[in-house]
Design brief:
The complex is a heterodimer of chains A (about 300) and B (about 325). Chain A is an all-alpha fold and about 300 residues long. Chain A has a single domain, classed as Orthogonal Bundle (MetI-like fold), CATH 1.10.3720. Helix content of chain A is about 70%, strand content about 0%. In chain A, strands 1-2 form a two-stranded antiparallel sheet. In chain A, helix 11 packs antiparallel against helix 13. Chain A starts with 13 loop residues before the first helix and ends with a helix. Chain B is mainly alpha-helical. Chain B is about 80% helix and about 0% strand. Chain B has 13 helices and no strands. In chain B, helix 1 packs antiparallel against helix 12, helix 5 packs antiparallel against helix 10 and helix 11 packs antiparallel against helix 12. Chain B is globular, with a radius of gyration of 24 Å. The chains are: A mainly alpha (about 300), B mainly alpha (about 325). Chains A and B meet through helix 5, helix 6, helix 11, helix 12 and helix 13 of A and helix 1, helix 6, helix 7, helix 8 and helix 10 of B.
Amino acid sequence: MGGPEGTGGRARHGGSAVRDGLWSDRRAVFGLAVLAMAVAVALFAPALAGDPIAQRDIVATRFLPPFSSDIHGAFHPLGTDRFGRDVWARLAYGARISLGVGSLAVLVSLIVGVAVGAAAGFWRGWPSTALLGLTDFALALPRVVLLLLLASLWQPSAGLVILVLGLTGWMTIARLVHGEVRALAVRPFVEGAVGLGASDLRVLVRHILPNALTPVIVAAALGLGNAIMLEAGLSFLGLGVQPPTPSWGNLIASGRDTLVNAPWVAAAPGVALVVVVVGATLLGDAVRDRLDPSLAARRAA
Amino acid sequence: MGLLLLRRALSGAAVIFGVLTLMFFLLRLAPGDPARLLVGPAATEEQVAAQRHALGLDRPLPAQYATWLGRFVRGDWGTSIATGRPVARTLAEAWPATVRLVGISLVLSYLLGIAIGVLQAMRGGALDTVLSVVTVTLFALPGYWLGLMLVMVFTYQTRMLPAFGAAGFDADFLTGWERLADRLRHLALPLVTLTLIGLGGTARYVRGAMLDVAGAPFVAIARAKGLSPARVAVRHVLRNALIPVLTLLGLSLPALFSGAVFIEAIFAWPGVGRVLVEAVVARDYPTVMAATAVSAALVVAGNLLAEALVGWADPRVRADAHGTVGAR
């Protein structure tokens, strides 16, 4: 990935590229629609759903199956949990945590990954060797094991999860940016900027980086799905976002205990998670194929 | 090839050393004074200081690090705070279960993933589209959730398979085939879960690698020579597509291991992952440290194995003992 050959565009091959365009458009449309819907639900949760934490009249309202109304006339599209809380409301408010933590973690990864990758690609010699060594080292670590270690040493919180996910997810981005920057650094327009007397930092930030960032979008989209999944995993183990604040992970965990009499409590957040991660992945796939027309043409052939 | 593997083994040792160093400093960075914790809240400052001295915490950091590393490398991992058992013995009992689960699921998910990816690349059309939807969904499934759903169906609703542990309570009284059947029944759900979540990523990658190779000139020549499509797909395209796939095998090991941590926690599978999760929840630092190191060691060992496989599949790597495999 990200070698020098990745930057040269090749002419598209008529019909096959169009056919592939349609398919990739479908993936992109689906991915964007899913992500937009999830963001909308998260943003407008107060308007779309009731109170996610309130528990009134537990005995009468708990374990109601989906599409039922309780004796007070409140409708529960996804049923209620063992405390009589509305699963839809918890799902909608949980989207705020899951999407928020996921995207902030990806942002941290982006900052670290772009910085490390750009520095390693631009300054050859020992800084490059050291940074690439660090990247390979970080890639070889089992991420979840490291997350668990950190979660055991510090108090679990959303902030810690963002930081830890971000600091364990930058390596792919660093590798991509490194390849791009290396290839761009020898191009004539860069030599021109150097010849005009621009400083190293200015050349890197103003001339090289803007051209190197497109493949990073792909890595960010794929990373978002991954981060959402890992946040849910940590919260599922009780080491992430703490109840009663709902996150999709701790919703699945709370549904685990009532799997027999109320399977919908664990099923609903899981389905939401899968749909969002599929959306992010397909969007990433579609953008990747778009960015590399030669790849798209070959894949359609 | 031997030289290359030696280099890789050395860099693997460097990774494990790095993990140990990272762990030591994270432990020192973490809030909470172990001396204060040990003597309790009612202790005087003198008692805390005495405890610090007894634990060696008043010595300079490099000296503490050297002592700690020396003990760790010799396998002196201390006793568990939570259970009082020697940590080394707990992990010695745990790691074979993890290797069994991860190893079998790795083989299964690669065989199935390669088969599906090849089928998609060869046939294309509607079948490719349907399988793409299936594999991306499997890829997006969180293992712990899939595990729960399988438990719901196969344990609670149909009562077909057990969901907890590696053997039944009566395992010691079973012999021969019954014992084996009991083991297999316990292995079924964790194995299927881990295989399914690994399969999606592999199939997606194999499909892409196959399509990348399919455009190469030597494939067109093979077709022009009149070879059957199946022969071209297997002998020419797959053979070359396998090289990046085997490289991916090594890179995907940390992820597979991460998945296994959740699966072991869900199914109470007696492996390193469950030991780790239980130790983390109990704040049992000695066990967390050792389990982290063992996980890293297992990943490094798996990477070496993948490296050897790449060398077997790609003669260019065998010939080029000085080259780096990562260079693409």
